[in-house]
Amino acid sequence: MKECYSMKSKGMWFLLTGILIGGIFVLLVVLFNGTWNHNNNMDQNHMMGHDSATSQMDDHMMSDNGMDDNDGPMGHGAMQELQASDEPTKPLPIPTALQPDRVTGDTVYYTVEATKGTSQFFKDGKKSETFGYNGDLLGPMIELPKGKTVVIDTINRLDEPTTFHWHGLVIPADMDGGPHQTVPPGERAQVRLDIDQEPSTLWFHPHPMGSTAEQVYKGLAGLLYVTDDAQNGLPNEYGVDDIPLIVQDRLFTPNGELDYDAHMNVDGTTGDTILANGAINTTFDVQTETLRVRLVNGSNARDFDFTLSNEAEMTQIATDGGPLERPIPLETLTLTPGERAEVLIDFSQVEDVAALKADGVTFTTFRIGELDKASIKIPTIETVERSTDETADRRLTLFGMGNMVSINGKTYDPERIDIEAKRGDTEVWEIENKPDMMGGMTHPFHIHGVQFRVISRDGKPPSDQEKGWKDTVAVAPDERVKIELTFTKTGTFMYHCHILEHEENGMMGQVNVTE
Ligand SMILES: [Cu+2]
């Protein structure tokens, strides 16, 4: 018996040593060759039913773009090409409208729990570990009525610290859920939010130092609708003529699982598959002539160009923080990570189907049935004429890629205040994106606790599409964007690039607002 045991254990040692050497070999190959994502991508193409000629062509195209597959320490990693999925269609999931725990006078009480769950993304795929708010993936829609106080009990049921950040809400910094408001695992925290801003589509997501990107990637993102009874001229029957689309790109392992560690890219983790409200290849049955769609770019790093398959125009009616000065007809709507827009889509002339595409790839198909007539009154906000040569009170220079990113030459330090501001003062910030030798990349610049106006891009007035309240603005390489803002709440707020991996790498600063 004893000899047999020792033979077994010797065999075991050989096996373990073999695995160890093999592991080191694979690691070296990954480090020096950088072919990891590349191979995964090819495997996946295979699984998704693309033939090898297609995937070789994709590889070829990537090389021709001048992007190599090497995710070196400086970044410049290959962005995944979006692919149409041949996954069977499924009805678009509509996030639950969260019911208040109770309502007393002017106060509405909710409970939001960050939890671990599992999700199966592919019909024949394995289940993945995912995160969600009050569920397995993503979160509910929380209505925040203008003029009310909303009290939210936040509970962290994850095994790691998280925060609950209310992206776009104009609230004091200690309620904002930035990196300073960590909720340890198993603990809870209560926030009190006085809702006093334009009706709009905001969202909430985690913001803990070092794991924001991974937690969002795994599924933590939910909707916040600021509503106002006075604004009732728009379609507003939730899930019927007023639908949200949280659009995200994800990369899956050959067996259909999400694996952040395997696919993480320091320049922003991208995927080849588009998810709408957490699902692949979705359909929505349209019942009214006019559908209001609230688009949220919830991806870690990818910009999306949204178009309709029938090349019809959409009408954009709102930006991040509320209505536009006037509705804008457009064929292509571009959103960078963190940005939102509301559009109206007119189906009265559409037969059978029309689809929404991102970068030319269909992700949600609208099926047209009997349509109810819609009578719409589109709200607008006051037009504000601004001088585009307004002098900047602050200059912020965004620079770098990968893990060499900075704002004004510095990376985030929680102990350092970068900007001191006074509550109620109106300031002009000029945000410059300084290109590097490789040309640089677009950075979506986000400020907490405030809604701002874009006043110029390279000295020219912004497009009509940007003439509304914003909390996140795209700044292209070599571009200077001026914004005007007035902090109305106090405390230490973050400003940062909303490419989540750039934020993690330190492309973030702090503005302290005092009385
Ligand atoms: Cu960035």
TrEMBL record:
Keywords for this protein: Membrane, Metal-binding, Oxidoreductase, Transmembrane, Transmembrane helix
Transmembrane segments: 12-32
Domain annotation Plastocyanin-like: ranges: 122-230, 269-349, 400-514
One Pfam family this sequence matches: Cu-oxidase_3
One Gene Ontology MF term: oxidoreductase activity
The family this protein is said to belong to: Belongs to the multicopper oxidase family.
Protein's name in the database: Multicopper oxidase type 3
Lineage: Bacteria, Bacillati, Bacillota, Bacilli, Bacillales
